[in-house]
Design brief:
It is built from 2 helices and 10 strands; from the N terminus they run H-E-H-E-E-E-E-E-E-E-E-E. The protein is mainly beta and 190 residues long. It has a single domain, classed as Beta Barrel (Porin), CATH 2.40.160. An 8-stranded antiparallel β-barrel has the order 1-2-3-4-5-8-9-10. The chain is elongated and about 90 Å long.
Length: 190
Amino acid sequence: MNKLFIFALLCLLPVGVLNIRAQVPTEVDPGLSHELKIDLLNSIVGQRPTVAYEYIVTPDFGLGADASLNLGFVDWQYYDRFRAVVFSRWYFGGLSKSLLRDGAGFFIGANTIVSYLDDKYDKSSQSCCVVSPAAKGASWGLGAELGWKYLSLHNWVGETGFRLYRYLLVPEGETVKLNASIFITVGLRF
């Protein structure tokens, strides 16, 4: 009985050591903190090219900006012609190897938006119409976002998320105060 117990202990001991060693995070290059991304969803489906840049400040915090331009090639229009968003994100990581890296995993964020209103989508007639000159102009607002970022071992970035904005300053005559957007971006960390 004692020989069987010692034999089982010697067989299980290496398995336990391997499990403990597997839970230790691996070292990654900490010098990679810049990301350049494009929004595939808005660029292809919405015909609104969007480019984003993000800088990973600490392992769980990043700052960035994105800019987009409404090309207006489709029948339906966005409320704004140009949009620039400055954001900050807090990352919560995960348990897989890629999510142990800086600036990856689930995130929540705060942002501010500046946009220029030019064309307006008329929901009643389902057509685009130009608004009166009084409603054209710049607008500013604050918002929040949440999403998920995946970082591959070869520093490719993929993220998806949702943003909600509340416009605080809008041109006179503009009725849109709330705006939501979904983003799916791909890019590279360097």
